[in-house]
Amino acid sequence: MKRIYLDNAAATPVSALAQKAVAETSKKFFGNPSAIHKEGKEARTSLESARAMVAEALAARPDEIIFTSGATEANNMAFMGVVQSAGIRGLARPHIVISAIEHPSVLETVRALERYGMRVDYLPVDSRGLIDTKELRKLITPETVLVSVMYANNEIGTIEPITDIAREVRHARKMNSSAYPYFHTDASQAANYLDMNVLRLGVDLMTISSGKTYGPRGVGALFVKRGVEMSPLMYGGEHEAGRRPGTESVALATGFATALAEARKMSVKESKRVAKLRDALAAKVLKKISGSSVNGDLARSLPNILNISFEGVESEALVLYLDAAGIAVSGKSACKSSSEGPSHVILAIDKAGNGEAGAIRFSLGRETKSEDVTRVANEVIRLVPLLRTMQENSN
Ligand code: PMP
User: Fold this and answer.
1) Which pLDDT tens digit goes with each residue over 181-209?
2) Is the C-alpha dihedral spanning 377, 378, 379, 385 positive or negative?
3) Is 213 an active-site residue?
4) 353 CB-near residues (< 8 Å, 6+ apart)
């Protein structure tokens, strides 16, 4: 039986072009890019051409791109680096504002900073998962060094109003006659589908991940606008302009750059294509299954993510039954009795009556076809009543 993979928000397949780039670059450019001999210089040229490609995809300058091991590291680097450098510049108790629905790589970094005495405010979201810029204005103080709101949410797909937030942050800077706050966005989920032009978006720092854009795992990048003060996360050599020590992986950087360029090229067409498939899946499932509802708002969402709650169904059970039927999706149990606890995103959108329902995330991708969506809808329509009956009998 052909497997259907609808977990592209967790990890995308690696594109053929990216695979080829990684293989060829590892073979050809094995030298240390910091070395001054021919092999070193060739590796440096290859690395810098990958950096220029990533910069071009974001309308950034090459020296504004720092390669990292992925989005988690880029997020840690942005928070720890900005806070530390603000401390060095004499800000006694820096303050941060983030949204309540950030990825754990942001939430847990901020929690660690709170343990060190940092003040943090969490921006609430409405039932669609959207933050309110008026609320943001209330939370920013003269001590605020960083505002971070993700570009698009990884669980429910909600696209946040990035340009409006950037405008609000600029307004705060003007009012305080300060270089702070900076504005960071985690754009890990956005790169395949949304505008990634950092100038249009108005961001100061932006996280991207290769593993979500059909590139190799273990690489990502942080865009850091010229002039932004950020201490390094680690100490060592002078790599990445002294901001991220350790010998760079030329092959991974090249694979990432290749995948990102490819993703940008097909972004508009793919957005339209997957949105159609997602809408078809949503319509079919919602029509046929009572007690099912969309988490978030498809009109304000990434085109590839569909998150549905099914009353009376444990999401983990549905994930496993779908897996047995050849379908990969993901679920975060929203069941309060679950040891993991409910998803912070589903809790934050606070859907009355749905807190107990199992949420399933279907995330479509480049390989998703119309017939796949039909098969997935049919399996869900078959399995949900079955699981409900099983659940009722066990009560
Ligand atoms: N941020 C977001 C929004 C994500 O979806 C993910 C991956 N689930 C990450 C950060 C972490 O990415 P990585 O695995 O590249 O560290």
Assistant:
1) 999 999 999 999 999 999 999 999 999 99
2) positive
3) no
4) none
- Ligand 1 centroid to Cα of residue 249, in Å, is 20
Q: Which fold has domain 4-12+267-394?
A: Aspartate Aminotransferase, domain 1 (3.90.1150)
User: Nearest-CA neighbor of 313 among 393, 395, 394, 391?
Assistant: 391
pLDDT for the residue 71: 98
Helix residue spans in the chain (DSSP H): 16-28, 38-58, 71-88, 104-115, 133-139, 162-176, 198-201, 239-242, 250-288, 315-324, 344-349, 370-394
Using an 8 Å Cβ cutoff, are 238 and 231 in contact? no
Pocket lined around ligand 1, Cβ cut-off 6 Å: 70-72, 103, 105, 150, 154, 186, 188-189, 209, 211, 220
CATH architecture of the domain with residue range 16-265: 3-Layer(aba) Sandwich (3.40)
Q: Ligand 1 test: best mutation among 102, 103, 158, most atoms within 8 Å of CB?
A: 103
Q: Is the pLDDT of residue 14 over 50?
A: yes
Active-site annotation holder among 18, 308, 313, 335 = 335
Distance separating alpha carbons of residues 118 and 128, to the nearest angstrom: 29
- Listed by start position, the domains of the chain span 4-12+267-394, 16-265
**Cα 183 from Cα 147, distance rounded (Å):** 5
Torsion over CA: 384, 329, 353, 279 (sign): negative
> What pLDDT sits at residue 242?
86
Q: Is the pLDDT of residue 339 over 60?
A: no
- The closest-lying atom of ligand 1 relative to the alpha carbon of residue 105 is 10
Whether the bond into 181 is cis, omega within 30 of 0: yes
Pick the residue whose CA is nearest to atom 8 on ligand 1.
Answer: 10
> Token digits for 63?
């020296």
Cα separation, 288 vs 285, in Å, equals: 5
* Residue 187 CA, ligand 1 centroid: distance in Å: 9
